[in-house]
Write a structure and sequence with these properties.
Layout: H1 14-27, E1 46-50, E2 56-59, E3 66-67, H2 84-90, H3 97-104, H4 108-125, E4 141-144, E5 162-163, H5 170-173, E6 179-182, H6 185-193
Helix pairs in contact: 1-2, 3-4, 4-6
The protein binds zinc ion (ZN) (2 copies).
Length: about 190
């Protein structure tokens, strides 16, 4: 979990990058077949042609609002969009936001924001969290005092923070000292909006 400089051999997690790219392409589908409305969940939207970002735009007759396939997802309004593909290949690396920002010529704050939004998106796509757990970039770890090790407080609804190494049998023998907890994207978002 330690942040380290990117090396020339750091190719990242190709399966995670491919999963993200495939899901990203679905959001950018050219199909005019309307999905359910992301706001009111109504069916029966009609396609209005292309919007300013050249994506099919739909008109919901339930709430009378327009949307595209990105609307309401954590991936809406991430800019500049053309760097996201490269970002998908880096998100599995335990690199710093500053370093990835330099590499992609985007702000470190953008790196942190994208990382959080993509983790939220991965949780929405795969509620089990197995894809989200493969993200390293931008993930924060919190120290859990030994006194609350059995039941760390759930900071957000649906929290899935995990104790680092909680699947290893040696943990139960290490009775004292603080533990590290991987802060889940739900808690991360709650902390940002607080
Ligand atoms: Zn609607
Ligand atoms: Zn959490």
């Amino acid at each position: 979990m330690h942040v380290r400089p990117l090396g020339p051999g750091d190719a990242g997690d190709a399966d995670l990058a491919a999963f993200l790219l495939s899901a990203w392409r679905k959001l950018h589908s050219a199909s005019h077949r309307p999905p359910r409305c992301p706001r009111c969940d109504a069916r029966g939207a009609t396609c209005d042609g292309l919007d300013h970002s050249r994506l099919p735009q739909f008109h919901c007759h339930g709430c009378n609002r327009r949307f595209n396939r990105l609307t309401g997802t954590p991936m809406a309004r991430l800019r500049p969009e053309d760097k996201l593909r490269a970002f998908f290949t880096l998100i599995s690396l335990p690199a710093s936001a500053a370093e990835v920002g330099r590499k992609l010529e985007i702000q470190p704050e953008t790196v942190a924001h994208w990382s959080l939004q993509i983790r939220l998106w991965l949780l929405a796509l795969d509620p089990e969290g197995s894809w989200e757990s493969r993200v390293q970039l931008g993930v924060r770890y919190a120290v859990v005092p030994a006194s609350v090790r059995d039941a760390p407080a759930k900071a957000a609804f649906g929290c899935r923070c995990t104790l680092v190494g909680s699947d290893s049998p040696s943990l139960s023998q290490a009775d004292d000292g603080p533990l590290l907890m991987r802060v889940c994207p739900l808690c991360e978002r709650a902390a940002h909006s607080a």
